[in-house]
Description:
The chain is mostly helical. It has one domain (about 15-70). Helix content is about 65%, strand content about 0%.
Amino acid sequence: MKEPLASGGQLVTATPDANLARWQDAFDNLIGRVAGRFARIEPRRRMRKLVLGLLSDLPRKTERLHKLLAA
């Protein structure tokens, strides 16, 4: 398995917390790029939950997504 490199080419040791933080930053960046397409905060929040649900490793997504969208 290759070790990840930072933008400066230096070796980065990836801990689970570091991987999670990087994933969350990348996800927030992605959501930020499309958030302007939604005029109100409620649809933005719903879209964020929907995308998180689709990216999850749940075996059945439809039932869980309906619950997320209803909240």
